[in-house]
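Inputs:
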Amino acid sequence: MKFKDRFSFSGTLIILILGVCLACPWVAPYDPYAIGGDIPFAGPSKAHWFGTDDLGRDLLSRILYGGRISILIAISATLIALIIGTLWGVTAGVRRGWIDEFLMRTADAMMAIPQILFALIALSAVGASVYSVPVVVGVLLSPTTARMARSAVVAELNADYVVAATASGVKRSRLIMSEVMPNIAPQLLVQLSINAAAAVMLEATLSFIGLGIQPPDASWGTLMLQGYAKIWNTYWFVAFPALAVTITILAFNAYGERIRVSLDSRRSSS
Amino acid sequence: MRKFLIRRAASSAIVLAMSVVLVFVSIRLLPGDPVLAKLGAATEVTPEALKALREEAGLNRPLLAQLFSWIWNALHGDLGSSYHSQLPVAQLVSERIPVTLELTFFIILIAIIFALILAPLSTHRPGGRVDRIIGYGTSMGLSVPGFVIGIILILVFSLRLAWLPSRGYVPFTEDPVENLKLMILPAITGGLTATPYLVRYLRASMLEIKQSSFVRTAEGKGLSDRRILFRHILPNSLVPTLTMLGLIVGYTLSGVLVIEYMFGLPGIGSLAIESATKRDYAMIQGVSLTIIASFILTTFLFDILCGLVDPRLRLDKGEKSEV
């Protein structure tokens, strides 16, 4: 398992990114909102590791503060997707019949709408803010989570222990909550990690097209939008936030992949 | 075949209907008044004027009635008129379609070319160095947002090397060379985002085909590696990939939105973003319908295509062969 070994630092990387971004008030070297602190568009130097932006603000500090917004949005969106998606998928998987059919067709219909388009519709209606973006992103990620949860539950319900428990008269609701749910938890964890990556990407994309986090608040996507507008002046400005987003997504995806691989190997060896 | 066609058409129609209702209802149910958005915050509005405008737009009727009349009109090619320019939505949308079509065509073309090169290289020696490098590359590619790839391409090819323009659009009929030059960067951006999915899928199905007995027979009778690859493995692994391609066209449509916006191409995607920023609900509805319908239509066509190529796919899972 070379792949697994090589990416085992992804979990550490995630914790590092989360820690640094959430602790930004203590970590950041400058005030991210202080205008005119230094020369605009300064390149990376000892004083400003990542250079400065168009208003002379320290880019490293802005990326750390932006990271806090991006990460918090990703976390809340992921949790929302997990809750909605699990309820949705488990209900479908347990109930079956027409309820299953209806719930899964709804998921298909939602997935037939391109994600960005759906977010666009919702955000133009409610207005983009730090509160609406995570909800919209979370709802967007829930149908895929629901599908995964449903197939996991259906597979579990066919297992021998379920038949045995049913035969010995265990109540169905208890069986689901205390036997089936813990068994599908690892698969949900994989989905959680993939969702976190997708949430970071979606938020960045939405902010990049100007429909996500609005200034003066700035997520990584907002910073990239500002940097992209000034791409002819300096490339640091757009490159560093882009790097931050990419590394974060990569870490979440690699972590999810790693758990999935170890789950698969456990299943195939048992 | 007919049964298969009917079944697929029916399920596509259901998904289409549901997503249209979903879009319509979510626009209407979410807070945010389309009439207020139309008037803008700057103007003073009397309640009477507001009511008159609502009536004029038919917004005071029951939701279901609005939904049905909108669908009825849409079926007759009338998508209403833009709140801003008052021009018919159908006309504005159709003006933008050629740009998006051209871009999508090039994106898919590039992705297919890359996949056809990378997947055979990767499966030549599974687990070998080339395979591992391509594997890392595709995992990377799946994690990099499309617009980040676009930014990198602009930095390198427009800023550093100054080879290609980074923004703008000229119709193909006016200046074919300039049109293609402007399409290169957006098309590569989209192509590179779609490639990893295709490579992974094609690689997996090629590996599966490689295990099958007819490949062993081909090896046994001494055919050259190249002949086995091009005559036996590739054609057989393309069929499952075709289904995947339908889905990728769909994802590409989502990516096209952002790509058009960042490269300043006047396609449907940038139209969607413009109308969302202006809160032009009539436009958003029309654009969404167009995008969703074309996505569902594409997946449907690819499904049919796969059914034509491979009769086994015409059967539902669990249904026993009757062909």
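Chain B has a mean pLDDT of 80. Flag for discussion at group meeting.
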